[in-house]
Write a structure and sequence with these properties.
Blueprint: H1 6-23, H2 29-45, H3 49-57, H4 64-76, H5 78-92, H6 95-116, H7 142-154
Helix pairs in contact: 1-2, 1-6, 3-4, 5-6
Signal peptide: 1-34
Keywords: Membrane, Signal, Transmembrane, Transmembrane helix
Membrane topology: Multi-pass membrane protein
Length: 159
């Protein structure tokens, strides 16, 4: 993550895992092996990404611990919600449909990462980065918080 940035690491991780899940629909030994390799590689690339994003999103100050606790509760709850969802989907349709649906949801996650997660990779001063772009989904970027601080100072409010 530190070498490529959070968005790049997340996109690589989620793409590999999604493709691995999509391969399971073929249900033959080479597809299962390829799926295991892709999902394992993707899982390794994204290791710690959710916790890092949670720390990035957490407000500074006294509410930081509570924010991280609720954030972790929400994404950890997916550990029991996801199997239930897949079980219901598999019962209602088939295993192939569940695998394809899960892979498609993962690819939608890739689109969300590209659109909503700002790149965190820092480049040396004066150098332009090809990965540098802003997020179209975030209202709370660092530039807006510094603008808000400047507005509060101009209005005479204590910051």
């Amino acid at each position: 993550m530190d070498s490529w940035g959070r968005r790049s690491a997340g996109v690589a991780s989620l793409t590999l895992q999604s493709l691995g899940l999509l391969l399971l629909a073929f249900q033959n030994p080479p597809a299962v092996v390829a799926s295991a390799v892709l999902t394992g590689l993707g899982n390794g690339l994204g290791s710690g990404l959710l916790m890092t994003l949670g720390a990035d999103l957490a407000p500074q100050g006294p509410g930081q611990g509570a924010f991280i606790a609720v954030y972790r509760l929400l994404f950890t709850s997916l550990d029991f919600i996801t199997p239930a969802f897949l079980g219901i989907l598999t019962t209602a349709s088939s295993l192939e449909v569940a695998e394809l649906t899960t892979g498609a949801i993962g690819l939608l996650g890739v689109v969300w990462l590209l659109l909503c997660v700002p790149e965190t990779l820092q480049t040396p001063a004066g150098a332009k980065s090809s990965t540098e772009s802003s997020s179209s989904c975030s209202n709370s970027s660092s530039s807006s918080s510094s603008t808000d601080t400047a507005k509060q100072e101009a209005a005479g409010q204590q910051v």
